[in-house]
């Protein structure tokens, strides 16, 4: 018997589904933070990745620019900072990779205001 797929529907999860997603643990993958679990609607595995490179700060411009050439040039260093877990909330959409409708992957389930790894 073939497993039946739930039909695609863009639909926000109810509070108890949101609470379930909230409980999935954030895990660190390199610099990124990833949260994975089964989609409450279609039961396929879904994940949310926070790509931490977008949080890297640009190197600061050091020295006084109006002093002219002092012969001392600070080489621009791109610092890779070990950043704290980002606070705030994220939305998580079903991205199960299974086609629930033509041209769409995921079942359309989503939840909002899920606490980030650093807390809401
Ligand atoms: Zn699915
Ligand atoms: Zn789903």
Question: Any overview of this molecule?
Answer:
The protein is built from 1 helix and 6 strands, in the order E-H-E-E-E-E-E. The protein has a 3-stranded mixed sheet with strand order 1-6-5, covered by helices on one side. It is mainly β. It is globular and about 55 Å long. The chain is 8% helix and 26% strand. Bound molecules: zinc ion (2 copies).
Tally the helices: what do you get? Answer: 1
- Please tell me the overall pLDDT: 82
> Distance between termini?
43 Å
Strand elements, count:
6
Helicity, as a percent range: under 10%
Give the ligands present.
zinc ion
CA-atom Rg in angstroms: 21 Å
Number of separate domains: 1
Extract low-pLDDT stretches. 71-76
Structural class, from secondary structure content? mainly beta
Q: H/E order of the elements?
A: EHEEEEE
Question: Strands of the biggest beta sheet: in what spatial order?
Answer: 1-6-5
Summarize the main sheet. 3 strands, mixed
Task: Categorize the overall geometry.
Answer: globular
Oligomer: single chain
